[in-house]
Input
Amino acid sequence: MGGQNPYIEEAKIESPTQKYKVTFMPMNVTVEVDPADLPYDDHGLPGSILDIAMKNGVELDHACGGVCACSTCHVIVQQGSETCNESTDDEEDQLDDAYALTDHSRLGCQCVPNGKVDIVVEIPEWNRNLSREGVPQDS
Ligand code: FES
Output
């Protein structure tokens, strides 16, 4: 499952026109994105962080299949967030349920870089699949 959710505001995305790199942290895996190969596997919006992660074997939870209906694909765009599409109100609403939000938090399935710079994305270690494991508790 994946693609666009017809019940939410359509995200305005600018597809990349040049190759760029995405580094996933903390595993420190860097992959190259070639616009000629997009979209990959229909995980979230075409060219989304989730789409890129899944194509390259980087584990990123996505309980709703990438249709902006959960918060399990929460990522933090550490570098290059200015080249990503703006989050919609629907994405912000879902992010409200994510644990330990930051100013650079996004839903991986809704965040599409335009490829103008390389980006660095952190997959939070505390990120849990809420439907499977419940909300993490502060100790
Ligand atoms: S996978 Fe559910 S919101 Fe991204």
Residues 128-135 have pLDDT under 50 and may be disordered. The helical segments are 49-55, 89-95, 130-133.
